[in-house]
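Supplementary notes for students who missed Thursday's class. We covered one full example, reproduced here. Read the sequence, then the structure, then the short commentary at the end.
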Amino acid sequence: MAESQANSETAQKKQGFFGAIIQFIREVFDQLKKVVTPSRKELLNYTLVVLGFVALMMVLVTILDFVFGKLAGFIFAGSPLWPLW
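Structure (token representation):
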């Protein structure tokens, strides 16, 4: 394990700056070849899951904002907690 790290470090030092950049670009293209595009059904499913999660988070943040706003008004301004509007 330590020998392989030492060999890779010495190989990287031998490459030089531009050699390391070229190697990085090659590795990026190698990784991009592994990318699989989803089917239409999968894409629709993923999109609906994301939109549902975002809607759920919007509702949660809205409720928390309302509750903390009412509490801050009650604590600092003395406004009543009820009625809610």
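Commentary. The chain has two helices and no strands. The longest helix spans residues 40-77. If anything here is unclear, bring it to office hours.
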